[in-house]
Design brief:
There is one protein chain. With 230 residues, this protein is an all-alpha fold. The protein has one domain (20-223): MetI-like fold. It is 71% helix and 0% strand. It starts with a helix and ends in a 7-residue tail after the last helix.
Length: 230
């Protein structure tokens, strides 16, 4: 009787939700980072290798979007995905898909801006040699990606760091629904307001661990010289 009366109950402080919350957070953030990597690297290549009317305006816009307010992104996406919005028929509001979209929108400018600088610098230095060997601008992209692979990986990691730490936009479009759209950041905000510090601190430690791991990887990649061959 004594044992059953005083046994620890994980559900009492929400610790039974720890695993699902962490799992959903990583799934959403990694998915958003992958989308941002594809879009960001594609946009960076377009800006670095081509010249077209409005290119400079687009470069300025990409850099300006680095400071895009997350809550505003969430609000605009909410309006698009709500029942009365143009994309309301997709039924994405308050789903992980909407959260992936919000995080990807915020991370794409980071990947694009950082990757653009890398690809443009390598194109200026090696572009003529690559074209002299018979490669077109777009055929030269693959060698350029190989030359700057560490710096480009750093750009993608920076995008992931942005997605995994996001709270405002995912709270608006996800709704922080338990077992469905509750991530580490939104759970920390909620549990702290409820005074449930055990779960909030546990999730906070995971976020800190992820942040340290990403920062360490970026430091290692940035400290290793690239071996550039043409």
């Amino acid at each position: 009787m004594w044992h059953s009366e005083f046994a620890y109950d994980p559900a009492a402080d929400g610790m039974d939700q720890f695993g699902p919350i962490v799992g959903l957070s990583l799934t959403v953030s990694l998915s958003a980072a992958l989308v941002a990597a594809v879009l960001g690297l594609g946009l960076a290549a377009l800006l670095a290798l081509t010249r077209f009317p409005g290119r400079r305006v687009l470069v300025v816009a990409v850099n300006a979007l680095l400071g895009l307010p997350p809550v505003v992104v969430g609000l605009l996406l909410y309006l698009l995905l709500s029942h009365g919005g143009p994309l309301g028929g997709l039924g994405l509001l308050f789903t992980p898909g909407a959260m992936v979209a919000a995080q990807a929108i915020l991370a794409t400018p980071i990947v694009a801006a950082l990757a653009h600088r890398v690809l443009e610098a390598d194109w200026v230095e090696y572009g003529r040699a690559l074209q002299a060997s018979g490669a077109s601008r777009w055929q030269a992209l693959w060698p350029l990606l190989g030359m700057g692979r560490r710096a480009l990986a750093t750009a993608v990691l920076a995008g992931f760091g942005r997605t995994v730490s996001e709270v405002g936009a995912v709270l608006v479009v996800g709704g922080n629904i338990a077992g469905h759209t509750r991530t580490m950041t939104t759970a920390i905000a909620l549990e702290t307001s409820k005074g449930n510090l055990a779960l909030a601190l546990a999730l906070g430690m995971v976020l800190i661990g992820i942040s340290v791991a990403v920062s360490a990887t970026v430091l290692v990649l940035g400290g290793q010289p690239e071996r550039k061959r043409i």
